[in-house]
Amino acid sequence: IEEEGKGGVDRFDSPGKGRGLRVTKRFKVGDLVFVSPAYSYVLSANERGFYCEFCFARKEGLAKCGKCKRAFYCNVGCQKGDWAMHKLECSSMCAYGENWCPSETVRLVARIIAKQKTQKERDPSEKLLQVEELEAHLDKMDNEKHEMNETDIAALHHFYSKHLEFPDHNSLLTIFCQVNCNGFTVEDEELSHLGSAVYPDVALMNHSCCPNVLVTYKGHVAEVRAVQQINPGDEVYTSYIDLLYPTEDRNVRLKDAYYFTCDCKECATKAKDKAKMKLRKLSEPPAPEELRKMFLYGRSIIEDFRRLLTMCELSLDKMGAVFDDANVYMLHMMYQSMGVCLALEDWDGAASYGEKIIKPYSTLYPAYSLNVASICLKLGRLYTALDRPSQGLRLLKKALVILEVTHGKDHNCVTDLKKEIVQLK
């Protein structure tokens, strides 16, 4: 961390967790703990034309690259600033046309390799601490993950061989594992995916299901803010996963993606599990084995679920015979159903799902949760479009309270939301 300790945050060896971060001064709820520029980042291909490739600003009238015509920028300054990275893709996109399709992870790794080369050319003795110290967990990969990494390495060679000098195969495998374990999804205030990035300082934070900070983004810069009071000497904890799920599910996800299980207070007490696994009041409660099978079904169907509204409705009917609407598997399926309704422009259907989601979300998620802010924004704006302004205004104000803590009062998403609220009054 730049000027380590002077800003109130230090690296240290966290007992049983490896490296971590701790604070050297008190931070109140909403305080900015630290800011981290990305070591390397890439805009999602789906957002091209809407956001600047270099600064991630969203605006009308972006200028496109004159050669590939597929990268967009605010101005000449942003285009020049991005050229060192965009040149890796520009001529390749021209050559492959519609067949140019490396994954976002491949694109990010290509940029990391290019940046490492630039650093070594500048100072051959420099140790690339920022990336080389990231965990890779090569020895813990299963066959499926190994095959995915090999596929990505093949794509890297295919699309970037004319523009990059690659390290040896094992080094490439290590970089892909480091990105998969430590990469971040850059999101806007509605939790929409904008791109991917590597933030070595942010990656130093350990996980807790009771996080005391939350990571948000201003452009492609990560901002870490307190969502609980943090006292001098306290470790800084973020959450690596969605906290809606019960303890067992959270730890299955952590074990699969990050190779550890959590022992935080929430995992030890399982305080919210009963509410998260709420059942319908039936005359004859389901047998434990039947219940277990339904839990497994709920978990697998969420992982396998793809966009079709009919599948959502069938799944909701099936699970709804046993699960209460506030059960997290029902909530997840209703959230997906809401998204499908929005895509199909079924505004009333989307609103009906949103109305069922918002109260349980507010109860089951932490006080300052982006998931709660996101549903408040979506449903609030939906109400406004459906000519229900008072309901919309109430939810937008609720989102504002959260975003002022998670993003800071001067963030553009906060100032834009304030303007939106004023217009509705």
Write up this protein.
The chain is α+β, with helices and mostly antiparallel strands and 425 residues long. The protein folds into three domains: 9-37 and 199-238, SET domain (Beta-clip-like, Beta Complex), CATH 2.170.270; 40-186, Annexin V, domain 1 (Orthogonal Bundle); 270-424, Serine Threonine Protein Phosphatase 5, Tetratricopeptide repeat (Alpha Horseshoe). Helices cover 50% and strands 12% of the residues. It is built from 16 helices and twelve strands. It has helices spanning 76-96, 104-122, 129-132, 143-160, 169-182, 200-203, 247-258, 265-269, 273-276, 288-304, 309-320, 328-343, 347-364, 370-385, 389-406, 412-424; strands spanning 9-14, 18-23, 32-36, 40-43, 63-64, 72-73, 183-187, 193-198, 206-207, 213-218, 221-226, 237-238. The strands form five sheets. It has a three-stranded antiparallel β-sheet with strand order 3-11-10. α2 crosses α5 (169-182), α12 packs antiparallel against α13 (347-364) and α13 (347-364) packs antiparallel against α14 (370-385). The model has no long low-confidence stretch (mean pLDDT 90).
How large a portion of the residues is in β-strands, by DSSP E? Answer: 5-15%
Mean pLDDT: 90
The CATH architecture classification of the largest domain is: Alpha Horseshoe
What is the strand tally?
A: 12
**In the CATH scheme, what's the topology name of the largest domain?**
Serine Threonine Protein Phosphatase 5, Tetratricopeptide repeat
Number of domains: 3
- Percentage of helical residues? 40-55%
